Amino acid sequence: MTYKKEDCIKDTKEHIGQVRGFMLMFAQELIQRAIVHDQSKLESPELEIFTEYTPKLKHSTYGSEEYKKFLNEMQVALKHHYANNSHHPEHYENGIKGMDLVDIVEMICDWKAATMRHDDGDIKKSIKINKDRFNYSNDLAHIFNNTVKLFEGSFQ
User: Fold this and answer.
1) 66-102: per-residue pLDDT in tens?
2) N- or C-end of the chain: fewer Cβ atoms within 10 A?
């Protein structure tokens, strides 16, 4: 059987349509996540605890002993938050290895926004700290650093 140009065009168009469908499905899931992101922070027990600690966290340095102390004091809210939000590695028994790409995209966006709430926030520093905290590879750290270039100039 001879594979003709028309067959190639037909197969390629079918492939393009399939890729488009998968990408739109992925984009729709991201849009849904953007709409519902962190809604649990507006409910008890998170609301009360985050009301107390958000200003404290703003003036602390991410990863510092003071920051870790605050997180320790916030455990009731954080356990609830992690249980209800899959974009946190703590949501999964096996941490970041349990996440999918949608979780990862939401997480890096969350990390960037979190750095903007800290007086001395720095997304690249956070990526470096989180590499050890969540035990992810150099490759994933490079992907995160490549991705944050998309944020340059946004909301700053």
Assistant:
1) 999 999 999 999 999 999 999 999 999 999 999 999 9
2) N
Average pLDDT value for the chain: 95
pTM: 0.91
Please give the Cα distance from 6 to 9 (Å, whole number).
5
Tokens of 62: 């991410």
Measured CA to CA, the distance from residue 121 to residue 128 in angstroms comes to 13
Distance from C-alpha of 32 to C-alpha of 53, rounded to nearest angstrom: 28
Joined together, the tokens standing for residue 84 give 């209800």
Cβ neighbours for 111, distance < 8 A, ≥ 6 positions apart = 123, 126, 127, 130
Kindly state the DSSP code that residue 3 receives in the 8-state scheme. Answer: -
Q: How many CA atoms lie within 13 A of 143 on its CB side?
A: 11
Residue that is written with structure tokens 């920051």 in the block:
67
CB burial class (10 A; 0-12, 13-18, 19+) of residue 51? exposed
